[in-house]
Amino acid sequence: MDVVELLGEIAEIGRDPVRGGYSRHVYEPAELELREWFRRKSAGLGLEVETDRNGNIWAHWGPVGTGTIAIGSHLDSVPGGGAYDGPLGVASSLAAVSALMDEGFVPAQPVTVAAFGEEEGSRFGIACLGSKLMAGAIPGATVAALTDDTGVTYAEACRADGIDPAGLGRDDERLASLGAFVELHVEQGVGLADLDSPVAVASSILAHGRWKLVFSGEGNHAGATRMRDRRDPVAAMAAAVLAAQRIASAHDGPDSARATIGRLTPIPGGTNVIASRVDAWLDVRGDTDPQTRALLEEILEASHAAAKEHGCGLEVTEESYVSTVHFDANLRERLVEALDGVPVLATGAGHDAGILAAEIPTAMLFTRNPTGVSHSPHETASDEDCRAGARALTEVVRILASEPR
Ligand code: GLV
Ligand code: MN
Ligand code: MN
Q1: Which atom, in ligand 1's list, is nearest to the CA of 349?
Q2: Is the C-alpha dihedral spanning 200, 87, 379, 283 positive or negative?
Q3: How far is the CA of 248 from the centre of ligand 1 (A)?
Q4: What residues flank ion ligand 3 with Cβ within 5 A?
Q5: In the chain, what is the straight-line distance between the N-terminal and C-terminal CA atoms, in Å?
């Protein structure tokens, strides 16, 4: 199996004619089709396919047992995302297993390829749901009750892939079976382009969280309401967006400080209607927990001031938070050594490997992205680099699965 050919097989699945790129949201038809594709390809390699009770799919090479080396990533995307974020890791994993099988390699440890569910949080709002459920980082009942934009609950949606919502929750048995997890991912930055290297090993992930901001004002007529009589939540929200941008920019220098409002919904949303409410989602990231929390506090203070200035209310809810992740140093060094001293890079993007890092040794490989653009239809990686990434993952599995633990 060739990683580029594998990506070619799914290139038409989930294309978004409006946004461009791909919209492959968990348990919606495109993502279900990708799940079936992954199951079919895995079965074709002779792997034993299993869907766990948290909606993650596993393709086992060898009997499941302790010390299993897991590789893989996710198949879902952000709205209008690129072709590589997620599927590159899954396709590279299948290619790596296939290459080792072709060589006649016999793993001393079981190897498994994982496809995690709802990594982006594009449908139910919280990222890395599959890995968080498995690690018990979020209660199953909380996830079951999450709703998408149309009011469908996670509990209803997951049945589309045969998942019983009653089973959602920490999976001690599976966690105990895993010796390590290595996720290959397209780089989401220009670190490798700058270093002129096709592959890197990850060092850390920024602390990051999501907050829902609900600005409430007074719905009214766009023509009949004098400007001075308005309580317009869109105006308040706009001031908050600019404040977030200004505050994070002031901190984003020697420190990493990121603040984004990329999703907002005015209600009711009419051209000639002053909205009565705006729902906005704030994504804040930083080097450490104290730095991230301090940045958030500053942004929220400015947002409350903006709401007050426009006669509006503001309610803030923390939807998710993940502390800074430092990947397992020992595993990282073994990967760097196995790959002849490839560069080590930090990232600002969240990953299932970051969630599982709290439970088992995890590591990541990055494949060069020449423009650094990600979460966009313009995300890219060359065929040559995709193959270099898959070869690197092959070497990593060869080394990790050769050593009895
Ligand atoms: C996931 O890609 C994230 O960093 O939000
Ligand atoms: Mn992503
Ligand atoms: Mn991803």
Answers
A1: 4
A2: negative
A3: 18
A4: 85-86
A5: 29
Q: Which amino acid is at 325?
A: V
Question: Please, where in the chain does CATH 3.40.630.10 lie?
Answer: 3-206+324-400
Hey, what's the torsion of the CAs at 343, 348, 352, 357, to 10 degrees? 70
205: closest CA among 346, 358, 322?
346
Distance 138 CA to ligand 3 centre (A): 19
The predicted pLDDT at position 404 comes to: 67
Q: Give the confidence band of 403 by pLDDT, cuts at 50, 70, 90.
A: confident
Report the distance separating Cα 24 and Cα 262, nearest Å. Answer: 18
Task: For domain 207-322, give the fold.
Answer: Alpha-Beta Plaits (3.30.70)
Q: Could you read off the pLDDT of 282-309 as tens digits, one per residue?
A: 999 999 999 999 999 999 999 999 999 9
The pTM of the full predicted model, rounded to 2 decimals, is 0.97
> Strands (DSSP E) along 177-276, which ranges?
178-186, 199-205, 207-216, 220-221, 257-267, 273-274
C-alpha of residue 354 to centroid of ligand 1, in Å? 11
User: Which CATH number among 3.40.50.300, 3.90.830.10, 3.40.630.10, 2.40.10.170 corresponds to the domain 3-206+324-400?
Assistant: 3.40.630.10
